[in-house]
Amino acid sequence: MRKLKLLTLILSLAVFNCESQNPTKFSEEALNDTFISLDGESLSFKEILANYEGKTILIDVWASWCKDCIAGMPKMKELQESKQEIVYVFLSLDKSIDSWKKGIEKYKVEGEHYFMKSGWDGPFGTFLDLDWIPRYLVIDEVQNIKIFKEIKVNKNLKNSLP
Fold it and tell me: Which domains occur in the chain, in start order?
């Protein structure tokens, strides 16, 4: 009986640990973090998600100064061409709104764009445990996080999309 209880405890901790590393839902703090739209509107991440309710969303956390982000853009554009029904949301960690807007234009980044006002250490960045960009997430039609941590446009990311 004691061994069974110990095994149950170990399995419970393992499941809890996996869920905390790859959550399926956003925290309230992340949902309430504030972003800036291209037209200067301030809105919460919860409001951003509400705009795309019922659709699959691919989120790309990027910055125009990030070499790896720019290097991944051609594969992102290929993905956009092959999966046009997906909503592509780009969340920028640029240092200023001006550099963010210039980066979108310079690299011809197509999709929905928002500036991460709170940056790496804000509620959204903390929830993601950001340690590298680009960072990709896939959100399904009912707004569950399907892919939490991907750093390349690869087969895993492509296969998670409908």
Answer: 24-159 (3.40.30.10)
